[in-house]
Write a structure and sequence with these properties.
Length: 226
């Protein structure tokens, strides 16, 4: 049996590295007596596949993992046992059984959304967004494997949504991830800085979701398997 789960990582755990998260999930599976499947070979491991890596320093509203079980299990029972076994600030919100031919999360996810919480009371965000989306190029220093090179983010920024509540404002970037253009949150942070939003005004940054983008539509990884 294969299942795909959606979970939330609270801001209290935003400095947890990806390998630490995998170990945490593996321990929870053991504590919860989940009938997980093991790989073959001299060093068997739990058949657990995490989604796109959540960068250290960010928390996530909707993260995903795939898990293979060695026997059938009711989804509500799985969620209940994991709730009891997981530490505070991590919560599985929903899960779904998937087929053996379902594309892996790493292959399927090609977009994500990042939220920047800002304290910029005098800044006109609507005008700022119009100017950003009107640009042909948005150049920043690459923060990925090709450090030191200049990177154009424009084709990888699909849309920007704004939410303003008095002095606190939320800027949500919907961007491409993976190949051919991977837009990182720290590159978006530099873009904000380069276009008038100093880093000292950023109160929080988190990944609000991961998506499977097809055409102009965005789907949650769970939507594609229901």
């Amino acid at each position: 049996m294969l299942l795909r789960a959606e979970y939330r990582v609270g801001p209290e755990l935003k400095f947890l590295a990806n390998l630490d998260m995998m170990h945490l999930m593996a321990r929870a599976l053991r504590r919860g007596n989940i009938p997980y499947a093991l790989s073959e070979g001299f060093n068997p491991h739990i058949k657990l596949s995490m989604g796109t890596v959540l960068p250290v320093g960010l928390w996530g509203e909707k993260e995903y993992f795939d898990l293979e079980l060695n026997q059938s299990m009711a989804l509500n029972e799985f969620m209940l046992k994991m709730k009891e076994a997981l530490p505070p600030y991590i919560e599985i919100s929903q899960c779904w059984e998937i087929g053996s031919h379902t594309p892996s999360l790493m292959k399927a996810i090609n977009a994500a959304s990042y939220v920047f919480v800002l304290l910029v009371p005098e800044f006109e965000l609507d005008k700022w967004r119009e100017e950003i989306m009107a640009q042909e190029k948005l150049l920043v220093a690459s923060r990925g494997k090709k450090k030191g090179l200049v990177k154009d983010l424009r084709k990888g920024i699909y849309k920007i949504e704004l939410d303003e509540k008095e002095q606190i404002k939320r800027v949500e970037f919907w961007v491409s991830v993976g190949e051919p253009l991977n837009v990182r949150y720290d590159e978006l942070e530099e873009l904000l800085h380069n276009t008038g939003v100093d880093k000292q005004f950023i109160l929080d940054v988190y990944r609000s979701s991961n998506y499977v983008m097809q055409g102009q539509e965005f789907f949650a990884p769970l939507e594609k398997v229901k």
